Amino acid sequence: MITQIASTKSKIKGVEQLADGYLSRTPILQFLIVSLMFPLWGTAASLNDILITQFKTVFQLNDAATAFVQSAFYGGYFLIAIPASIVIKKTSYKFAIMIGLLAYIVGAGLFYPASQVATYSMFLVAIFAIAIGLSFLETACDTYSSMLGPKKYANLRLNISQILNPIGSIAGILLGKYLIFGSVGNLSQKMAGMTGQARLEYGEKMLQLTLQPYKYILLILIIMFIVLAFTKMPTAKPITNDVDHAPKVALGKTLKYLANNIHFKKGVLSQFIYVGMQTAVWSFTIRLALVMNHNITDADASMFMVYSYIIFFIGKVVATSLLARFEYSKVLGVYSVLGTMTLLITTFASGMVAVYAAVVVSFFFGPQWPTIYAHTLDTVKEKKYTETAGAVIVMAIVGGAVIPAIQGIVSDFSGSMQFSFIIPTICFALVSYYFISEARSKKEA
Question: What does the alpha-carbon distance between residue 7 and residue 171 come to, in Å, rounded to a whole number?
Answer without folding.
Answer: 41
